[in-house]
């Protein structure tokens, strides 16, 4: 234990001396949560303010007085778009949608002809897409009202056209909205755990070899196991500190959200933050050992950064696979690091039941793989090809 503590103290002091790296890592961890949420809050507030304005843009509105009357009865303000609206939309400089009414619209409708109207919008802008959907819904509503009036005039009951009525009941809507908003928390937290450990893991392995300080370190009366575990604990400490800062920043950012709907859905307080840390804690232990093992084969910082980048990519991709592939929660996912933690946290955010085994199984897998990685490093440090392989 004295040897282990000496190695841990030495590595922590070496890591703390590199203040610029720590400032960048911690600043990223502390700012990522608030910035992400505040940007999302601003985006939703802009959408809400646009919806509250209740303004619709109609080109050639004079050709469709009945349609304009319907829009006004829906508490909408009908305005004319700019003359160069098509050019603005094509250039990506217009956030709204425009209803294009052709000439002779009113006469064609009066004679029972099928008339086509066009809704112009920018598919790359969320506000424009939302406005287009609103315009389409309003036009369909007017068309349905017009059809009902025609049937009534001819003495036909409009209910004959709808023999079946569908009622949609949304269960768990509040928690579902929260889950959609909180999906970013596990992903950002997982990546922050890796980023926090990355610099220290490279420095205590490839950095030591590149500086030529690994051989003298092994000449001290310290066992290889104590040396590996001491370095690993220093890397774990960096990972846990970064993870705690990221999770804490999300909890604080939830109190700064200005949109009431988003604030109500984003329920991420102290209990959720504590559960997130408990689930991701074992993952920090695993990723620290894997980063050290990967960097141990490198002959310098550059090579180590290239080899460890694959781990960062895997951690970023694994949680997203279930979403992109539409995978349902399955027990086998608990055995996959990063994916298992993401699944458990997603269940918690959805309000689904989380059992003790859901937490223990991913943690046990991480601890088992950590032990294997540490054992492999202990064996590798006894090989001259690893110790003396400087570029």
Sequence-ordered SSE layout with sheet pairings:
Blueprint: H1 2-17, H2 19-53, E1 55-59, H3 65-73, E2 77-79, H4 85-90, E3 98-100, H5 105-110, E4 118-120, H6 126-153, H7 173-182, H8 184-211, H9 214-218, H10 224-253, H11 260-265, H12 270-296, H13 301-324, H14 339-350, H15 356-380, H16 384-387
Parallel strand pairs: 1-2, 1-3
Antiparallel strand pairs: 3-4
Q: What do you see in this structure?
A:
The protein has helices spanning 2-17, 19-53, 65-73, 85-90, 105-110, 126-153, 173-182, 184-211, 214-218, 224-253, 260-265, 270-296, 301-324, 339-350, 356-380, 384-387, and strands at 55-59, 77-79, 98-100, 118-120. The chain is mostly helical. It folds into two domains: 2-40 and 175-387, no CATH class; 52-166, abc type-2 transporter like fold (3-Layer(aba) Sandwich). Strands 2-1-3-4 form a four-stranded mixed sheet. Helix 2 runs parallel beside helix 10 (224-253). It is elongated and about 100 Å long.
């Amino acid at each position: 234990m004295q040897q282990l503590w000496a190695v841990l103290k030495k590595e922590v002091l070496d890591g703390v001396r590199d203040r610029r790296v720590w400032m960048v890592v911690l600043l990223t961890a502390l700012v990522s949560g608030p910035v992400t949420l505040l940007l999302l809050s601003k985006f939703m507030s802009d959408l809400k303010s646009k919806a509250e304005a209740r303004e619709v843009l109609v080109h050639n509105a004079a050709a469709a007085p009945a349609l304009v009357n319907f829009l006004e009865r829906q508490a909408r303000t009908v305005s004319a778009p700019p003359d160069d609206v098509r050019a603005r939309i094509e250039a990506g400089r217009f956030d709204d949608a425009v209803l294009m009414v052709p000439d002779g619209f009113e006469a064609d409708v009066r004679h029972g002809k099928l008339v086509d109207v066009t809704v112009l919008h920018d598919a790359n802008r969320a506000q424009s897409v939302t406005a287009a959907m609103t315009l389409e819904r309003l036009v369909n509503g007017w068309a349905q009202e017009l059809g009902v009036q025609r049937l009534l005039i001819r003495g036909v009951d409009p209910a004959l056209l709808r023999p079946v009525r569908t009622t949609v009941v949304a269960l768990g809507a509040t928690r579902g909205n929260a889950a959609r908003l909180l999906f970013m928390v596990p992903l950002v937290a997982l990546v922050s755990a890796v980023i926090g450990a990355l610099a220290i893991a490279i420095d205590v392995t490839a950095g030591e070899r590149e500086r030529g300080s690994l051989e003298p370190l092994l000449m001290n009366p310290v066992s290889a196991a104590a040396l590996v575990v001491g370095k690993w604990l220093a890397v774990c400490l960096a990972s846990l500190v970064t993870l705690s800062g990221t999770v804490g920043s999300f909890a604080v950012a939830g109190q700064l959200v200005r949109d009431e709907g988003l604030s109500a859905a984003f329920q991420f307080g102290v209990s959720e933050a504590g559960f997130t840390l408990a689930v991701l804690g074992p993952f920090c232990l695993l990723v620290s050992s894997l980063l050290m093992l990967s960097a141990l084969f490198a002959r310098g910082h550059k090579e180590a950064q290239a080899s460890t980048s694959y781990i960062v990519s895997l951690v970023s991709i694994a949680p997203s696979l279930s979403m992109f592939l539409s995978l349902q929660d399955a027990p086998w996912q608990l055995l996959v690091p990063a994916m298992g933690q993401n699944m458990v946290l997603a269940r918690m955010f959805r309000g689904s039941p989380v059992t003790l085994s859901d937490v223990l199984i991913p943690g046990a897998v991480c601890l088992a793989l950590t032990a294997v990685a540490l054992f492999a490093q202990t064996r590798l440090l006894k090989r001259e090809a690893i110790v003396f392989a400087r570029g």
